[in-house]
Amino acid sequence: MKKNDKTIKMCCGAIGLGLMAFVVALAGCSPKTDSDIHTADGVYYPSTTEDEIEWIVQNNIYEGCTIERLCDDLQSCRTIFSVDDSQIQSVIQKKLDDNPTIVKSEKRIIELGDLLKIKYSMTDQSTGEELFSTSQATAQCGGKIYHHRAVFESLEGHGIGETYTIDNCTDRAFPNHRIKCTITPLYIYTLEEAILDDSFIKQYTQFMTVQEWKTSLYEELYTINRDVAWQKSLDKLIKNSTFRLNQELIVSKASQIAANDLINARAIGIELEQYVRGTYGISYDEYLVLQFNNCEKAIKEYLLVMAVAEVLDLTLAEYDLDEYAQKTLSKPVAFLTEEEYSILRYSLIREKVIQYFVQSEY
Q: What is the Cα–Cα distance from 264 to 281, expressed in whole angstroms?
């Protein structure tokens, strides 16, 4: 076991379930879905969010941590990024694949493999109590079914518009009932790839035209790719710098979020380890190490941002702060609390540092 593992587990023993939720608010530890970040090299780069910036500055999490040696070749840590057409096309294709056009068939007799819409209900055969009903459900004759298996397995050979019943069937959704199913196939259909036009965009997005949606996609991907580029630059900076970190402080701060995961687990009636496995897809021990490592990186980022800003002499004029306050908080600097001012100041310094290291190809 590595030193960090031991430190974490010792802390957990001392503070109960303390360590568990460390970087949910610190380093973006919620697992990413396929739609979150796609990079050219297939690598996910965890990034620092506004909430995490606020958490670091508010809690002085960087206290007792210093840079012993800053990377002496800042230029080599720069990263160039772009948004290429293939990324945009990939998102467009996924939207089309997820929302195909349904084409009704003239076919009247159901065969194995047919896609169809059906109306059906399930009642308790003894009491007549309705257990389930739907006026229009999607079905595939002979498809893999986990619930209401009797309904879907019965479709083959029946005709469209024909109402029929199945008596004395069982269903895993209602294990203590003998069930009568009443089924009416409504129509058979096929799926075709949708046409990307303004009507499709209005139906499946918040935009009115294809061009509006594509512009929005470009802006989203630009932001994502820029953030990934910064994480790559940050990794280079970390690799070529040395730090002295207050490990005990990092671990103790981890305990502040532990209670949140415990509360969430108890709220749905499961054990904490089970909650971690289901939510994050990793073991409890792996989660602890992951959170600790992410916390370390977030603190190193803060230290590097401040050190680089000093080396590059990135000063902030009052009008810069005021403009940034208006943009991000919709109020002038004069109306900020001391805490808001500190967070705003660091966020703007960080943005200027990112601008130095990250450049668009276009």
A: 16
Rounded Cα gap, residues 61 and 58, in angstroms:
8
In the Cβ-directed half-sphere of 216, how many Cα atoms lie within 13 Å? Answer: 12
Rounded Cα gap, residues 355 and 337, in angstroms: 27
Residue 196, φ and ψ in degrees, nearest 5: -80, 95
In the chain (362 residues long), the average pLDDT of successive 10-residue segments reads 41 34 35 36 48 61 84 96 93 95 94 92 92 90 69 87 89 83 94 96 96 95 94 96 87 65 82 84 80 83 94 88 88 87 90 94 74
66-69 and 358-360 as β-strands: parallel, antiparallel, unpaired? Answer: unpaired
Query: In the chain, how many H helices and how many E strands?
Result: 11, 9
Answering whether pTM is above 0.85, one says no
Estimate the crossing angle of helix 272-280 against helix 247-267, to 10 degrees: 100
Q: What is the DSSP string of 13-79?
A: HHSTTTTTTTTTTTS--SPPPTTT---TTS-------HHHHHHHHHTTTTTT-EEEE--S-GGGG-E
Is 237 in contact with 304 (CB distance < 8 Å)? yes
Q: CA-based Rg of the chain, rounded to a whole angstrom?
A: 28
